[in-house]
Structure formats: structure tokens, C-alpha cells
Amino acid sequence: MPAIRPGIRKERQRGPRRGKRKRSDPSETRTPAQIAAQARLDREADHDNRALSNTFKFWRMCANRRCRRMHACAGLPDCFSDKWRNVHPDDRFLVREASLARARGADLQRASEIAQEKLAERDALWRKYDAPKASRAAQPPEQEAPSPQPRIRRL
């Protein structure tokens, strides 16, 4: 037993703090209807990701031979998110805007038109704010005043 200096008491072990209990697993508190609804949402998201993967032909750069053989997405987990980062930002913007328009009730053709209009608005806004930067970059740099020659003394 280690020696204790006089005047210093040994700290006693404390029990668990009040209000701090073990977190329960959320699946334990969900009802069967909630579990079924979540499974349905997961299936729909997977279906949408596979359709989008096929549209962009992600199977061409997929590491899975099954996708390349099928010339379509086989639906592997995390495959879509890895390749989505490589899509051009304008194309990602179009997909997001078309999805929002479809969610609001537009048909496929109208959703595509809305997405194109939003892209044109965004590009016009970017040009508006990039124009001053471009004009400043096009100006020749200001010339500094020539510095005086250093004075050299003869010894």
C-alpha cells in the first residue's frame, strides 16, 4: 500500500453521476412500422443512386468487375459517394435543382428546364461579381518608384 502524506486523504471512488446513463440503441425504441419505413426510404435512395450512377456511367470507372461487366451499377455501398465527388460542379448543380423541381411536382421535361434556368442565373451572378476581379487583373501592375542607387564610398 502506497504511503499517504499526512493531511491528504485518499480519494474515494465515486459512483456514476446522476443523469449520465448508458445511451440506448435507437433501434430498441423504434416501432416495427418505423423500421419498415426506414427500410423503404433506404431502398428508394439506393434505387435513385443507382439510376444516377447509370446516367453518369460510373460503371466505367468502378473497381468492381460486376459493374463493368453489366455496364450498369451493381449497387455497392459507398460506391456512389466516391464517384459523385468527381462529377463536374455544374452537372451536380443541375441534378440537385432538377431533383428539387421534381419534388415540387414538375414533370421531367419541366424539371430539366427549371434546372437549366437556375444554372444560367447562377452563372450570370458569378459573372457579375467576377467582372471587377477580372478588370483589376487586366490592369498593368503599378510601377514602383525607382530606388536610389546605393552610395559607394571609396577608401
Walk me through what this model shows.
- The chain has 155 residues and is mainly α.
- Helix 5 (89-103) packs antiparallel against helix 6 (108-138).
- The chain has helices at 26-29, 32-55, 65-70, 79-84, 89-103, 108-138.
- The longest helix has 31 residues, at 108-138.
- Among the domains are: 32-86, no CATH class; 88-135.
- It is elongated and about 95 Å long.
What key phrases describe this protein's structure?
single chain, 155 residues, mainly alpha, 0% strand
Topology diagram in text:
Blueprint: H1 26-29, H2 32-55, H3 65-70, H4 79-84, H5 89-103, H6 108-138
Tell me, what's the shape?
elongated
Strand content: under 5%
Reported for the largest beta sheet, the result is: none
Helix-strand makeup class: mainly alpha
- C-alpha end-to-end distance: 83 Å
Quote the average pLDDT: 81
**What's the helix count?**
6
Return residue spans where pLDDT drops below 50 for at least 5 consecutive residues: none
Rg from Cα: 32 Å
Spell out the helices and strands N to C.
Answer: HHHHHH
Q: What fraction, in percent, of the residue positions are helical?
A: 55-70%
Q: What is the count of β-strands?
A: 0
Structure in a nutshell:
Helices cover 55% and strands 0% of the residues. It has helices spanning 26-29, 32-55, 65-70, 79-84, 89-103, 108-138.
